[in-house]
Amino acid sequence: RQRPNYFAALLAVALVLGCQTWTADAAGDQFEAAELSARELARRIATTPQDLIVFDIREPAEIAISRLQGSVPVAPTTAREAFLAVHGKTVKGKDIVFYCAIGLRSAGFANNLLDDLNRQGAKTVYVLKDGIVGWSNADLPLVDDLGATTFVHPFDPSVINFMVHPERARTTPR
Questions:
Q1: pLDDT of 61-87, one tens digit each?
Q2: Taking a C-beta distance cutoff of 8 angstroms, is the pair 111, 80 a contact?
Q3: CB neighbours (10 Å) of residue 18?
């Protein structure tokens, strides 16, 4: 099966939702969180989990379907100040990874916080490349409240077209 074109998916979802990403500060400088592949994140989780904090930037209904084990849920609408008040002191000396369904919301969230997280002492701020859909496409483990699962909430019906295993798309908990 041909590899999905995630850029096209991101663009389609952004256009449908009217989303914008936060990539520039007041001076116009570009700030972008680094991308981390699903396989590289899985390797780091397996070998040095104490050096990572993984934040899940999705809605509760999405998280109810599946998540990366040990990830910290954060609503996509969480204000910068609220996030920093709760998590700001935990990031010192850690690599920070944000993910969502395909990477659009988590990239915006990470880019919006990048300077603050660096000031708080985060080592590197990453966005999981292709989000939880990419993780699922790589056949990496997911969990829900009942244990191991293969299901993924697609966030938007158009995202199903970019899933290697569209039969894994689910919008209600099992």
A1: 999 999 999 999 999 999 999 999 999
A2: no
A3: 6
